[in-house]
Amino acid sequence: MSKRVLLIFPHFLKGRRVQPKVEIPLGLLCVATPVSLADYTVKIIDQRIESDWHSLLIKELSLNPLCVGLSTMTGQQLHFALEISRLVKKYSETPVVWGGIHPSLLPDQTLHNENIDVVVQGEGEETFLELVEAFEGTRPLPSVKGIWFKEEGIVKQTECRPFLDLNQQAPLVYDLFDLSKYNRVLFDVQHQPFFTSRGCPRQCTFCFNTALNQKKWRAMDPDLVVERVKDFVEKYNVQGLRFNDSNFFIDLERGRRILKGIIEANLGIVISKLNTDANTLFMLTKDDLALLTQAGCRRLSVAVESASKKIQALFKKPVAVDQVLKFNRSLKQSAIVPNYVFMMGVPTETKDDLMESISLAFRLIDENPEAGISWNIYTPYPGTELFNITVKHGLTIPQGVEEWIPFHYRNLTQNGPWLSKEMRKITRMLDFCSFFIGQKSLIRPIEKTNRLAMLLGKLYSPVARKRVKNLWYQFPLEINLARIFRLYG
């Protein structure tokens, strides 16, 4: 019997970009690693970088893999995942397995699609390996914890699988990818993604983490993190790392130990991004900032979300604005670039609510010209508290996988029924213009890799600032042109 397994990462969307943001899909690699270490041959097709992915798929199916696994999240990626699944069924009888955020949140509904045979719910490292063994015939399918499957057309669920101990997981087998195809440049160096923890204990009503990870945070031991970082950097000649943790400083002392370990290892890397939230900033001291700088950190991504007390209460995420401003000023002479992340497009939000956040955003970039600002557009994820509120404000719950495809965040600015027509236009304008309102803006990390983008961004910046400050969404000619040339939207 075949000992082959095929894993596929579908497109998120198609279109031109200022700089391709193609990074290794860590979630898929986490699932692939235990299977590879168990002596199965694992082939990974990343649809984003393989122009001949269709031919590769047909070739792999001819080798009779035990199964085809796909990772997908809510939104346009579902379109491509369904396209691939239909092709698998057209050319073979190979079982199709879905995992990732969307099927984990809606396993029952997902399985009602005729092209999907099994859903892996939650973390897939142990589950997918056991599932592969079941397809090989060495264990019964119902004995695999953490799956949903169909038996004679009836959807069935097995026992839930407990969360993994990250300290017991093997190092990721990066050799399963051609790293040369994942060469995103930030701050003048190529970087690769890396994670040291999963989940988040915060109560944020909009975040899928609350449903997927049940508000639990789990982390690798700091000494193990440093060991893994050192091995990864030295084996693959990595110049930069982007930490994908939802909040790196949930445990501040652990974070300090990791940074100190990286310094002591003398790796000379650039840390192109660390995620944190506004309330964590208050715990960081001058010594912590010095530690971050010495470890090579160049950017902190800070989740502020909103300056409006009403929206903060809706999010269950209070933020002390004066403390954010104080921290921002402390970074003015630092090598660390802060990027403050806001959210818009939520139910009940008004122009006044948005203006509170916009006023804070302009203070941040005016008081620290190195700072960047970005706005995320709210996406209603099933299983979250705010999703239920959004339903009360006009959202019709999709009844099948296909109906979730339009849930791309930028599409929601045009079709979100919980937003007024005016708020949709304002949201679209703010989404586009926020990239240009800072003196450095979000384009700064790639200033030496796309000079044309930098030049155009600087020329457009005064227009963007005026639009945002005045909530001027009328006559969006430049936004429409960007959409026509598929540079935006």
UniProtKB/TrEMBL annotation:
InterPro entries: BchE-like, Cobalamin-bd, Elp3/MiaA/NifB-like_rSAM, Methyltransferase_Class_B, rSAM, rSAM_horseshoe, rSAM_sf. Pfam families: B12-binding (PF02310), Radical_SAM (PF04055). It comes from the Bacteria. Residues 186-422 form the Radical SAM core domain. Its cofactor is [4Fe-4S] cluster. Residues 3-142 form the B12-binding domain. PANTHER family: ANAEROBIC MAGNESIUM-PROTOPORPHYRIN IX MONOMETHYL ESTER CYCLASE-RELATED, BLL1977 PROTEIN. This is B12-binding domain-containing radical SAM protein. It comes from candidate division CSSED10-310 bacterium.
